[in-house]
Structure formats: C-alpha cells, structure tokens
Amino acid sequence: MRFESPWAFLLLLFIPFFLDGAIRSRFRKPKDGAGAIRFSSPVDIFAIPRSRRTVCRAKVLSALKLLSFVMFTIALARPQSGNQFSEIEASGRDIILALDVSGSMQALDFFLQDERVDRLTALKFVVKEFIKARVADRIGLVVFGDQAFTQCPLTLDHDILNAFVDSMEIGMAGQGTAIGSALAIALKQIKEIESNSRTVVLVTDGKNNSGAISPLEAAKIAKELNTKVHAIGIGDSGYAPFPVRGIFGGTTLVDRKMEYDEETLKKIASTTEGEYFNAKNTEELKRVYAEIDKLEVRDEKTFEYVDYRERFFPFIVIGLLSFMTHLFLSATVFLKIP
C-alpha cells in the first residue's frame, strides 16, 4: 500500500475543529467566570449535572464527524496497492546438447548422494541443472549411439526439454558411438536458425566407431558455420565397473577396459574455438557445466515495474456513511433545540 498524494495528511492538523465544543472545552482551563450565568452570585455551569443523552451527544457526533473527516482525508491521499512484475531482457543463445547414450554409458563409476549410479544418470542430473540456469536460451537435444537423431529441437520450453532428458535411456540409439554423426545432426538443426551465437555441447565417454562422417570433418563444418563446440569427455581410458547379470539372476560388477579418445575431443574443441573438459566423477561434471555456463555469457537486463490500483473508494464510502449518520442523528435522536 502506498499513497500517491501524502501531503493530504496535513489536513489532519485541523482535527480539533471537528470536535464538539463541549469536548474541546475539556482540553482548556476555563477562565474566571467563564461558563457561568450572572445572578446575584455566579453559578458554575460545569457543576450542574448533565443527562446521559447530553454526554453521548457530544461524543457520538464528534466521533462521526472525526471519522468522516479522516476517511475523506485518506481518500484524498489516494491510497494505492500494486503488484510488482519483473522482465528479463536477454540476448539468448542457441545451444545444442549432443549426449552419448551408447552402451558404455552404463558404467557404474559415478555417485549421486553417495549412491552408485551409471554415467547417463549422473549426466542427466547435471544437464538438468545446466538447463535450469539458462533461462533465456533456446536449447535443443541430440542423442547418439550407433546412430544420431534429434530428441528435442531448439526450444525455450525447458519443461518439455527436461522431460526429453528424463526419457533418455542407454542404448536407445544403439550400442556404438557415432560422434561425427552427432555433430552433423546438431549442425543441421542449428544452421537453419538465425542467431548471433551458436554452441554445441558434446558429451561422450568413448571413441568414434560408427557413422558416415568423421568427428574432425564435422568439426571443420562447425567452424565454417561459426559454431563453437565444447567437448566434454567422461571417464578415461582405464577400467570402469559394469553391471553383469549372473546365471542365477543376480548382478555383479565387472571391470572393463574403456576406449576413450581424448585427442579427438581436444581437436574438435580447438578447431571450433571451443573448450575441452574431462570429468571423472559427478562433482567434476558439475564443475565442467558451471565453466561452460560462464563461457557462454548472456547480456541480461532486468526491468521491474509495479501495476498500481486506486483504493480510495472504500474510504469515500465509509466517510459518506459517517457523514450521513451524523446528519441523521443530529436531526433526530440528538436534536438540539436552541
């Protein structure tokens, strides 16, 4: 609540003039002989008992006049209430997330809240945090294994995008790793969009072994299209635990050698003027996406404004009711005959 014309409250200084004369007289000391009728000897009028009606008349009528005056004064000050709004004006970026969903992503060497999870589960968790931070950006999703396809086109509807991230499953695009095809699909989607900033975030834990186009050829095309590629490698070329179902239905962990091509990922990033990162656990993966968030800076301006609505009408109504009640009682119950 605010008042558009607060100077109107200066009128409250005139409140004493709206009090009944009998009430005002109690706030000042009577002069000698004041309030007395001259007989053979002075008689103090204040010593004469007053009826209950006389006492109530001064208090009730003064209260009604005072209430009416105060309500009109508040209405004149124009009370207003408002709702605050904010707008974000941002130079949004177009970002394609190219994520590996091949069979190697089922390696159980990542942890979430002290619980062992596969690489894809950890990746999905971190990617959703990244999406949450990119409010004004259009983000698309490409998944790849043996094949690569668009899971979600560029969109500002991040709720839909998160739903597609949640729906990703290991092996949904095959067991192999087609890094070059993933980049080609991402570039095909992003090149048709008019944008001042195009970025592909490529995430994989393996070595290119599928697809019709090599990763470095795709990187050269990305450079021609002025598209930056940040390459993120998960794990390394060592051993990683994989779940294996036994003959009796139980699951055990078996270490398997990983094929990790760090050199190719570095070349992809350097060719497109992007950055290369390596993450061996969930915390490192979080830091990688935090670094990418800093690299892809957005120019944002926030505007706040308040939509005010006038709230003087109830005060006018109360003031009028008080004034009309005062007139009615003065002419009936508290009628004063000279």
Descriptors:
338 residues, alpha/beta, three-stranded antiparallel sheet, 15 strands, elongated
How would you portray this structure in words?
- By secondary structure, the protein is α/β, with parallel strands linked by helices.
- Helix content is 35%, strand content 27%.
- The protein is built from 9 helices and 15 strands.
- The protein has helices at 21-24, 52-76, 119-133, 158-166, 179-191, 215-224, 262-271, 282-295, 313-331, and strands at residues 2-3, 36-37, 43-44, 79-90, 94-100, 110-112, 115-117, 138-144, 148-155, 198-204, 227-234, 239-245, 251-257, 276-279, 300-310.
- Strands 9-8-5-10-11-14 form a 6-stranded mixed beta sheet, with helices on both faces. The protein has a 3-stranded antiparallel beta sheet with strand order 1-4-15.
- A hairpin with a 2-residue loop joins strand 6 and strand 7 (115-117).
- The longest helix is centred in the first third of the chain and has 25 residues, at 52-76.
- It is elongated, with a radius of gyration of 40 Å.
- The model has no long low-confidence stretch (mean pLDDT 83).
Question: How does the SSE layout of this entry go?
Answer:
Elements: E1 2-3, H1 21-24, E2 36-37, E3 43-44, H2 52-76, E4 79-90, E5 94-100, E6 110-112, E7 115-117, H3 119-133, E8 138-144, E9 148-155, H4 158-166, H5 179-191, E10 198-204, H6 215-224, E11 227-234, E12 239-245, E13 251-257, H7 262-271, E14 276-279, H8 282-295, E15 300-310, H9 313-331
Parallel strand pairs: 5-8, 5-10, 10-11, 11-14
Antiparallel strand pairs: 1-4, 2-3, 4-15, 6-7, 8-9, 12-13
Helix pairs in contact: 2-9, 3-4, 3-8, 5-6, 6-7
